[in-house]
Amino acid sequence: MKLAKRYLLLFVLPALVLYTLFIVYPLINSLFLSLYSWPGVGQKTFVGLDNFRRVFTAGAFKNEVFNAFWHNVYFYFLAAAIEIGVGFFIALMLASKIKGARMFRNIVYIPNMIPLVLVGFMWSLYLNPQVGLVNQFLRAIGLGGLAQSWLGQESTALTTIILVNAWRNIGFYVLVLLAAILDINPSLLEAAYIDGASNWKIIWRIIFPLSFSTIRTLAILLFIWSFNVFDMIYALEGVQAGPYRSTDVLGTLFYRTAFGGLGSSAVDMGLGATITVFIFATIMPVSILYVYLVEKRQRSV
To answer: Which of these CATH numbers, 3.40.50.2300, 3.90.170.10, 1.10.3720.10, 1.50.10.10, describes 70-261?
Structure first.
C-alpha cells in the first residue's frame, strides 16, 4: 500500500507543480497585488483596500467597472439564447436524420476551427459600412435601409460582436447537444409516436427534459467563458472597446488599467489585479456549482 502511494505521488507531482506554478501562484499573487498601487516598474505602494474602494465606490472608475460588468451580463444572456437556444434546435434538426445531416454537422463546426484573429479580420471586412459583404447583401435583397455601420455605432456594436462570437462557437454547442439527443433511448420516442404524441410534445416532454443536464452544464460553462471574454472584443474593436466604451467588458477594462492604452483613465497593475479579483469572485461561485453538479451527476450514474 505504501509503495502504491509513493507511485501515486510520483505521477501526480508534475501536474501538481504545473498547477501551482500557473494557477495557484498567479491567483495568490493577484490577491496580494490588489492591495498595492504599482505602475509595473519601481516600488510597490501598499494601499490596503483602497483599490477596492475605487472599483466599487469611486465615481468615474466605478462607472467604467459596472459599465463593463453589465456588458458581460448582456454578453452571457444573448450568447446563451443564440448558442444554446438556437444550437438546441439545430441539433434537433441534425438528429432527425435529414438528408445530408453528416455534411451539415461538419459545416456547422468549421467556424470553430478558424483562428480567432482571422475571424476578427474576416468580420471586420464583412461588416465594413461601405464595401462590406453584409451591407452589400442587404442592398441586393432590397433591404438597403438596414445597411449601417454595425461596429461603428453604440447601439449595434456589442450585439454585432456577440453574433459574430455565436457564429464562430455555435458548432461546439450543436455537437454537444446532438450527442445528448442521440443518447436518448429511441424506444422512448417510438412509444410516444405510437401513443399519438406530436413532434412538439415529444421535444418538450421527452427530448428537452432528458437533455437538460447537458444544457445546464453548457449554460454554466458559457457563463464562465462570458466573464473571461476578451479576445473577440479585442479582435473587432481593439483594447479601447469602442465606440465610446459600448463594447467594453471586464477583460478589456483590466487590460487598459493594468497595461495602459490610449485614453485609459488609470494605469495601475494593482488596480488591474483588483478587477481580476472581482472577475474571480463573480465566476468562482458558478464554478463551484458546476463542479458540484458534475460530481452529483457522476454519483447518480
So the answer is: 1.10.3720.10
Q: Please, is 31 exposed, middle or buried when counting C-beta atoms within 10 Å of its C-beta (0-12, 13-18, 19+)? A: middle
Q: How far is CA 242 from the centre of its chain?
A: 19
Q: pLDDT, tens digit, for every residue of 93-110?
A: 888 877 777 788 788 888
270: left (phi over 0), alpha (psi -120 to 50) or beta: alpha
Q: Which amino acid is at 42?
A: G
Domains in the chain: boundaries: 70-261
Cis-peptide, bond into residue 243, ω within 30° of zero: yes
Amino acid at 17: V
Cα–Cα distance measured from residue 149 to residue 147, given in angstroms and rounded to the nearest whole number: 7
Which helix (DSSP H) or strand (DSSP E) does residue 37 occupy? strand 36-37
Backbone angles phi, psi at 46, to 5 degrees: -70, 125
Stretch (H or E) spanning 46: strand 45-46
Joined grid coordinates for residue 18? 504545473
Alpha helix positions (H), 260-300:
269-300
Q: How many angstroms separate the CA atoms of 205 and 20, rounded?
A: 46
| The model's pTM | 0.88
Residue with cell 438528408: 99
Q: What CA–CA distance (Å, rounded) separates 159 from 161?
A: 5
Cell 452544464 locates to: 217
* CB of 57 closer than 8 Å to CB of 238: no
Phi/psi at 37 (5° precision): -105, 125
- Rounded-to-integer distance, Cα 213 and Cα 87, Å: 15
pLDDT in tens, 107-151: 888 888 899 889 999 999 999 888 889 999 999 998 888 889 999
